[in-house]
Give the backbone structure.
Amino acid sequence: ANTHMVNLRQRFPFPGKLRLRGEVASQEEAMAVARYRAKEREVIAAVKKGYYDLFMADRNSQITQEQLGLIERILKTAEVRYSVGKVTQQDVIKAQVEQSDLINRLIVAEQEQQSAEVRLNTLLNRPPDAPIGQTVEREPPPTTFEKEDLYRLTTESSPELQEAVFG
């Protein structure tokens, strides 16, 4: 009679160890969520800044184009007045120099606008030459906060502060 004996062993963790592991896992998860939210806010802030950079570049280009249109009318008027002897050649030359300066500023403004579009498209994970369209100026919503409200909003919405609490 062959007798086979099977011996099974199971290790039981020290009392409270599983609970501690669960708490550690919960804290690690909370920290990961806080880091994710911090990165999300960072990307949102970068996109907003990119949009406002583009907005400013658009407006700079638009204003420079308007100034160029004005100086071209002034130059035509100065040339006509010079031809009839009402102004000196120096007045015409001043207008021509101002026109050249504005043309150069417009070239720089358009390059800044293109660079801002490329940066914004890159942040949005789009092709660099994807059309963005005209930027729109919006009024910020009116906000009235008390000191306590701002403190509460800051502590509730700051992933960095939450990570520090859990860390």
In short: The chain has a mean pLDDT of 85. Residues 17-83 form the longest helix (67 residues).
